[in-house]
Amino acid sequence: MKSVLAKAIVLFLCASATTMEPDHKSFQEDFDGDSSEHFSYASGGNRADFTRTFGVHSSVEPGTSVLSFKIDPNDPPGAGRGPEIISNDFTHFGRYSARIKVPDVQSEQPNVGAVVGYFTYHMDDTLGLSEIDFEWLIADPSVIYVGTWTGPDGALKRIGRTIKLSDGTIYGTTYREGHKGTPYPLTGAQNQPEKIKAIDGYDASSNFYTYGFDWHPDHLRWWMLHPLTSDTVVLWDYRGSQRGIPQNKSRYRLNFWHTNEWSVVTNPNSLEKPRKPYELEVDWMRYEGRAD
Q1: Domains in the chain: how many in total?
Q2: The domain containing residue 42 runs over which residues?
């Protein structure tokens, strides 16, 4: 059974999202049982059995059942090589939210190169890519990456923001073309809020936090719930242009994988191969669809 706190947060989200006009595609996955109703398992790596377990007890929160993802040190680097779940159905505009605790590696391997991704993703042969993401490079769990990828394969476009939430630093809010394109600063309505109040002691590996994003045709808002007050902390409210906002349907996903090319902004050495099966815990994931 879920903890009282987790249930309270779910009820809060339901109440606060009444304007989102949920439709028949809405669902919540609680990860209480030994399998998933709304997601399927996928991995381009070794697919070792130990990398995923449904409905196990949380290591940090008694009474909470979770999805446990463990990275396989023998998996090759690359997105999608580690454990991943993908929604059985397509999702589109609406509210997405999840309660997640990323792996704690600071005492064992502070230079590990590993990524937790909470996101939507679908590549359509005609319409191109639809991706909206939260990402954590677990070598520094105080930093959050949010953004989108859009466009056809080979001509991708990225909008993104990088935040060190423990002290409120915004390293950049930018647009670029391709993975290695020059980043250009976004301004005005595309760069709101311009300042974020720090969450003192924020560490995505220390506890569960509730994260989410609201996807509309003309704006995107990434947010989280403050751990002490449950107030909504807006990480980025992207408006003023549809550039970078996916328009076509996607699939809801979560994954955990090794990177040997992308280091966290605060630690350029964080590219090491994982030495052990570090654990990611997911309490629940929710989608509240709407028709815009």
Answers
A1: 1
A2: 4-289
